[in-house]
Design a protein that fits this description.
The protein is an alpha+beta fold. The protein has two domains: about 5-170, At1g16640 B3 domain; about 180-450, MvaI/BcnI restriction endonuclease, recognition domain (Alpha-Beta Plaits, 2-Layer Sandwich). The chain is built from ten helices and 32 strands. The two termini are about 40 Å apart. About 40% of the residues are buried.
């Protein structure tokens, strides 16, 4: 069967794919040497739904040098091959392999234990094959490998100015529907036209319920977009991370206060060893606003600047980028690099490993929309501006550079309530934040768009 590209995309759509990415394969992209996706950045993480990223230390083959046994990262993939008859075949060992030294990303184990796979094409050492990766909303990746002399592969090559572009995943429109950017702008224009919206959120079942918390602007916006709150490190809406900003005026984009970028819990240090409750008892301080029997830990922490909580009964602490070299803008050993919270005695109170941050930052913030909002009380309600900021293109390097420059800061807010009782209640919140003025340092491009004037 020698279908054209439109027919192949139709099969992927019938298999549930809502987005499709293509990769032009060179002769060294084969089952033996793995399929090379990217070098120089983690671009592939923006596109592909991944399992947990884990650090691996490969065993050295007999007689090999240690240079070939450096640690790498691996992430499992929910991957199925699609054959010409429309049948799906699970490849249970499929994984993404990240080599931080270079950096480089490869796809591996796409045949292992699969009941069917395009073995001949995967083994072929030739230029011109095209790998299509269909992304389903449930996180499954559907793979199709096109032969170099197939009509679909030749159509794809003809549509690209540089089909062999090294490692770049190219998104192919899967239908004539609006692309994700246009659909997002259309929805934001609709929400703006609604005016004041009663405070609400979606519960885990997708049902609209009142939101009675102090700050519900983000939940209300997400409810209008059909987003169920969750803690997953995945984009919120059609591949876009949605960020609501409580602004001084909805006619002035990026005029509000701090922006919370992500809230990952530490995966190392004393915090991870003893747990949140014990950490707060050791390093926290009594609530300063009169809340009885409550212990807090807070304060703005910028790299290499001390946050002094001693007047409150706490400690003097700061964050540092362990292993980061400012001159080269790189970690000397990416595998061992960390963000660390330390005290004046150099105790590591908490730490965040690169593997823990990698998936969260890069995938969640590849494309982000920042929407200004205003709040009103009695009843609690929100409205959203028509001037929104779209930001695209990021990397973990930008994230670390912004921390080193003080443009991203750590603003923790864990608390322990009813601390002296038999049933204390602990809430964890570890915020990495920035200001509207510093957003441009985090992305390749930012653009303010009037959703009412955009083509929708």
């Amino acid at each position: 069967m020698n279908d054209n590209l439109k027919c192949v995309l139709s099969r992927l759509r019938a298999a549930g794919a809502s987005r499709v990415f293509a990769k032009y394969l060179r002769r060294n992209n084969n089952s033996r040497q793995q399929i090379y996706l990217a070098r120089g950045d983690w671009q592939a993480l923006h596109a592909l739904p991944l399992g947990p990223i884990r650090r691996c230390k490969p065993a050295a083959p007999p007689g090999s040098s240690t240079a070939h046994t450096r640690d790498n990262y691996k992430a499992s993939l929910d991957f199925k091959w699609l054959d010409v008859h429309g049948n799906l075949h699970h490849a249970p060992e499929a994984q993404l392999i990240l080599y931080p030294k270079y950096p480089e990303i490869r796809l591996g184990s796409l045949q292992a234990r699969a009941d069917w796979a395009p073995h001949d094409l995967l083994s072929e050492q030739s230029d011109g094959r095209v790998l299509l990766l269909g992304i389903r909303p449930d996180g499954w990746i559907i793979g199709v490998l096109l032969a170099r002399d197939s009509l679909a592969a030749m159509e794809f090559a003809a549509s690209r100015q540089q089909p062999e572009d090294n490692g770049v995943l190219v998104e192919i429109p899967i239908s004539d529907a609006l692309d994700s950017r246009e659909e997002l702008l259309r929805e934001l224009a609709r929400i703006h036209r609604l005016g004041w919206i009663g405070s609400k959120r979606l519960n885990p079942h997708g049902e609209v319920v009142p939101c009675k918390a102090l700050h519900c602007g983000g939940y209300t916006l997400e409810a209008e977009l059909g987003i169920i709150p969750n803690g997953r490190a995945d984009p919120d809406y059609l591949g876009w991370e949605i960020k609501q900003l409580q602004s001084r005026s909805i006619t002035r984009p990026l005029s509000g206060g701090a922006i919370t970028l992500m809230t990952p819990n530490p995966d190392g240090g004393i915090y991870a060893e003893v747990g949140a409750q014990e950490f707060l008892r050791r390093y926290g301080y009594p609530d300063q606003r009169g809340q009885p029997d409550r212990i807090n830990f807070g304060g703005v922490h910028r790299a290499d600047r001390w946050c002094d909580n001693r007047p409150k009964g706490g400690h003097c602490t700061t964050i540092e980028l362990y292993g980061y070299d400012r001159a080269s803008d790189r970690f000397k050993d990416p595998v061992e690099g960390q963000i660390r919270l330390v005290d004046a005695q150099d105790n590591i109170l908490a730490s965040w490993s690169i593997e823990g941050l990698l998936r969260h930052w890069q995938r969640k913030h590849a494309k982000a929309a920042y929407i200004p909002s205003e709040a009103a009380k009695n009843p609690q309600r929100y409205r959203y501006g028509h001037l929104v900021t779209l930001a695209e293109g990021t990397s973990l390097s930008r994230f670390f550079r912004a921390i080193a420059d003080g443009r991203i800061y750590y603003d923790p807010a864990p608390k322990l309530e009813h601390a002296s009782t038999a049933s204390p209640r602990c809430k964890e919140r570890h915020q990495f934040r920035t200001t509207p003025a510093d957003l441009d340092a985090l992305y390749d491009a930012t653009e303010v768009i009037d959703v009412l004037a955009a083509r929708t």
